[in-house]
């Protein structure tokens, strides 16, 4: 009987909400699961197929569905979650846009 082989990890370096990090991740792990594993709970799992927007984060300034984006693709990139939008007592542009447009964070029920 063959033993299942463990999946090798890949070392990545990225910036999350303005802070540099180094991690070893599975090459099959989604960015969504990676970020949730780091305690970033604003990144929600909704549909898992890129339809609902609950998992949206910004990678190098572009909004992406983190459920469809592999964590290894984040190597060398800057990632911003809702937690990273906080700017002291001031609203960020994203937070103000949510208010202006009557949006909710995940958009699942919108």
Written account of the structure:
With 110 residues, the protein is of the alpha+beta class. The chain is 15% helix and 23% strand. It is built from two helices and five strands. It has helices spanning 31-37, 93-101, and strands spanning 10-16, 19-25, 56-59, 62-65, 78-80. The chain has a five-stranded mixed beta sheet, with no helix packed on it. A hairpin with a 2-residue loop joins strand 3 (56-59) and strand 4. The longest helix has 9 residues, at 93-101. The model has no long low-confidence stretch (mean pLDDT 86).
Concise overview:
The protein has 110 residues and is an alpha+beta fold. It is built from 2 helices and 5 strands.
Characteristic terms for this protein:
single chain, 110 residues, alpha+beta, five-stranded mixed sheet
SSE ordering: EEHEEEH
- The number of strands is 5
Rg from C-alpha positions? 15 Å
Distance between the termini: 51 Å
The biggest beta sheet, please?
5 strands, mixed
What is the approximate shape? globular
Beta fraction = 15-25%
Treating each run of at least 4 consecutive H or I residues as one helix, how many helices? 2
Structural class: alpha+beta
Spans where pLDDT lies below 50 across 5 or more residues: none
Give the fraction of residues assigned to helices: 10-25%
Overall mean pLDDT stands at: 86
Strands of the biggest beta sheet: in what spatial order?
2-1-5-3-4
């Amino acid at each position: 009987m063959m033993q299942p082989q463990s999946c090798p990890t890949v070392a990545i370096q990225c910036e999350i909400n303005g802070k540099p990090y180094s991690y070893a991740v599975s090459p099959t792990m989604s960015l969504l699961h990676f970020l949730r594993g780091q305690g970033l709970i604003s990144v929600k799992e909704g549909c898992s197929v890129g339809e609902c927007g609950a998992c949206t984060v910004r990678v190098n300034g572009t909004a992406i569905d983190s459920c469809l984006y592999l964590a290894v693709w984040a190597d060398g990139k800057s990632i911003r979650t809702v937690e990273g939008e906080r700017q002291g007592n001031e609203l960020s542009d994203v937070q103000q846009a949510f208010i202006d447009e009557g949006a909710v964070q995940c958009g699942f029920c919108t």
